[in-house]
Amino acid sequence: MSDIWLTSLITDTPQQGYELAITLSRRGVKYTQPDMDVLKKLRPEYANSADALTAASHVIAVNFQTVAAANNYWRG
Amino acid sequence: MSDIWLTSLITDTPQQGYELAITLSRRGVKYTQPDMDVLKKLRPEYANSADALTAASHVIAVNFQTVAAANNYWRG
Amino acid sequence: MSDIWLTSLITDTPQQGYELAITLSRRGVKYTQPDMDVLKKLRPEYANSADALTAASHVIAVNFQTVAAANNYWRG
Amino acid sequence: MSDIWLTSLITDTPQQGYELAITLSRRGVKYTQPDMDVLKKLRPEYANSADALTAASHVIAVNFQTVAAANNYWRG
Amino acid sequence: MSDIWLTSLITDTPQQGYELAITLSRRGVKYTQPDMDVLKKLRPEYANSADALTAASHVIAVNFQTVAAANNYWRG
Amino acid sequence: MSDIWLTSLITDTPQQGYELAITLSRRGVKYTQPDMDVLKKLRPEYANSADALTAASHVIAVNFQTVAAANNYWRG
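Predict the joint structure of the above. Result:
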């Protein structure tokens, strides 16, 4: 990908950090399947599957570990 | 999501930290599938599956790692 | 849940830490499916499946990482 | 379980540490299904499945992270 | 493999670090199945499966943890 | 296993560390199923499955975290 989408792991709040973790998780999908039409077609399949939603939350959790450590857990 | 749901990873006790890990895990699902009606429809499917419950506990465990580290393991 | 079940991650021995990791893993299931009758009904399904037992051991391993770090690996 | 099987995470060598990680992984299974006859019956099922063997190696890898950190990676 | 493909985990930016994590993830596949024709044949199967794309993103997330830690989270 | 296959987690380069992570991942399989004939028979099954290859890369990624930390990320 040629666009710049990630310049820092630092966020102001934990919630922004969590949302960055979501972005990281989605980018992992987009790098593997860049065709947005395919991704849109797949969406109903996984947004209506309990297993797929749990798996998505799992990937977010792993990325959130990284973002939280980067921000020293926003300990202030 | 526009609501504020996560302002700190710090909790008073390990149990509150574990419960925050559950909140983080559920938010990962809700960000991916925000439609509460769909989520309610999926609930019986995964709350009655041993595999799905283990997978849910796995995501909580990953998020609990993050919360526990943030709290320096409540070492006091 | 209103009961208090987790007041500390500190244990005397690694084995007690491992057993606390098992408790954490089971609590993740119980928070998601609090109905004990359902959980009992599911037990034969997963206690007789090699894949389910491996998955259970996986969750325990993740929680044991947390407990072991909290105890500074019982290095003495 | 009333027997004592884990008194320390410290090992002399990385290989002993890896083998301790295997022990930890198997104990996770045994705590969940203590009946040795059931476990023996399940063995051919998973020892002949590529997916199950990869999953077993995954759990060992997670436990090896813990053991390796406990031993400060045997850096000497 | 005899070619040199990984000489450092250090990158200039988080995005380059994320892309290195993708390289690491793909190499794990190539070491296991070095035949590029087989890999090309498998591609449509997993690039059109929501579950497979989530699994790919998961592996990237694990490798990104490593790369991010190596770079001290690009804290500057 | 009575042979000595792991005497150190320290490697000269990140790539050698990655290859050690592959060795660790394969050993996890071999400890569980030591019969090389069975392993050879299973190989086509998983070397031609996108899901199995991703799972293999996942285990390597977990072991690479350990090896990379042991080597202080080859920061020089």
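Chain F has a mean pLDDT of 96.
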